[in-house]
Design goal:
- By secondary structure, this protein is of the alpha/beta class.
- The chain has 3 domains: about 80 residues, Winged helix-like DNA-binding domain superfamily/Winged helix DNA-binding domain (Arc Repressor Mutant, subunit A); about 100 residues, Periplasmic binding protein-like II (D-Maltodextrin-Binding Protein, domain 2, 3-Layer(aba) Sandwich); about 100 residues, Periplasmic binding protein-like II (D-Maltodextrin-Binding Protein, domain 2).
- Helix 1 crosses helix 2 and helix 1 packs across helix 4.
- The longest helix is centred in the N-terminal third of the chain and has 28 residues.
- The radius of gyration is 22 Å and the shape is globular.
- The protein starts with a helix and ends with a helix.
- InterPro entries: LysR_HTH_N, LysR_subst-bd, WH-like_DNA-bd_sf, WH_DNA-bd_sf.
- GO terms for molecular function: DNA-binding transcription factor activity; transcription cis-regulatory region binding.
- It comes from Bordetella bronchialis.
């Protein structure tokens, strides 16, 4: 059995179709399909229900998906530890959502650098699904992410997590010379909104938790969308519209009144921020040391 077959299988689950998964893996679809078949042949059981429309797993495929993720994660982590030890480096990789690398990760990096100077933290910044995929595959040993309505640990049972706090989204606008919001809800005028694509994580938060109270009272015109929160921030600063942005991301602009709250009655939304690792016993070196350090800090702050 080759680990690349497990990587292919998990890529297929992530992509949702054989064609997209093959493109992700940078091989032709027939070659990709053969590798999935080789995994099934080695296991002696089918994982994909090829008689159903769309991608559907067999009962065995459903039952053992977590086992496949754990096996691949452990193998990649073992390789990383051996390579780091060979090079005399204690290295840990953390997968993080783009925005959190600006709002939360710097303080975490400073803490590790100060209190565990022998450990080198590498950062992989991606969107939320890709960050989770890299953590699940073992390419990253830690995951820093925003929590959905169903917490990640509910769907990844072989993990441990630390609740670090909340990312608060607030509705803001560029300011007029007099300090009032340039864009705000007004009767009879469409609200110019800078938003996030509905299928994205931030889009889900926007449409489920931020917009309903606004749309109940005012017409809304979405003038631009972007999956990059930092890009939306720049558009707000340019005066293109109002948006819900992480308060930590715009703390300096709020303090200098470059950005101001877009109006009263608009909801502020708190999203939990968590750090994850694979659940395991002692003896895993640098990850254990970081976890103990952060757990102790959390206990002191409680």
């Amino acid at each position: 059995m080759k680990l690349i077959w497990l990587e292919d299988f998990l890529a297929l689950l992530h992509a949702g179709t054989f064609s997209r998964a093959a493109a992700m893996r940078n091989i032709t679809q027939p070659a990709f399909s053969r590798r999935i078949q080789m995994l099934e042949d080695w296991l002696g059981a089918p994982l994909i229900d090829r008689g159903s429309p769309g991608l559907r797993l067999t009962p065995l495929g459903e039952r053992y998906t977590h086992e496949f993720r754990a096996l691949l994660m452990q193998a990649n982590e073992l390789r990383a530890r051996i390579q780091a030890e060979q090079q005399g480096v204690r290295r840990v990789r953390v997968a993080a959502q783009h925005t959190l690398t600006i709002t939360w990760l710097p303080s975490l990096l400073r803490r590790v650098q100060r209190d565990a100077p022998g450990i080198e933290l590498g950062v992989d910044a991606h969107d939320r699904p890709e960050s989770i995929a890299r953590f699940s595959s073992g390419e990253a040993q830690l995951l820093l992410c925003l929590e959905a309505e169903t917490p990640l640990h509910a769907t990844m049972p072989r993990t441990e997590y630390l609740h670090l706090g909340h990312e608060r989204l607030v509705a803001v606008s560029a300011a007029t010379p007099g300090g009032a919001p340039l864009h705000r809800p007004q009767a009879g005028r469409p609200v110019r909104l800078l938003g996030y694509p509905a299928p994205s994580f931030m889009g889900g938060v926007l449409y489920k938790r931020c917009l309903p109270p606004l749309m109940d009272r005012y017409p809304v015109r979405i003038v631009q969308e972007s999956g990059f929160v930092a890009g939306i921030k720049e558009m707000v600063l340019a005066g293109m519209g109002m948006a819900w942005l992480p308060e930590r991301l715009i703390a300096r602009e709020l303090a200098t009144k470059t950005l101001v709250r877009a109006g009263r009655g608009l909801p502020a939304v708190d999203i939990p921020v968590s750090l994850y690792r694979v659940a395991r016993g002692p003896g895993h070196g640098a990850v254990d040391e970081i976890w103990a350090l952060l757990s102790a800090r959390q206990a002191r702050d409680a």
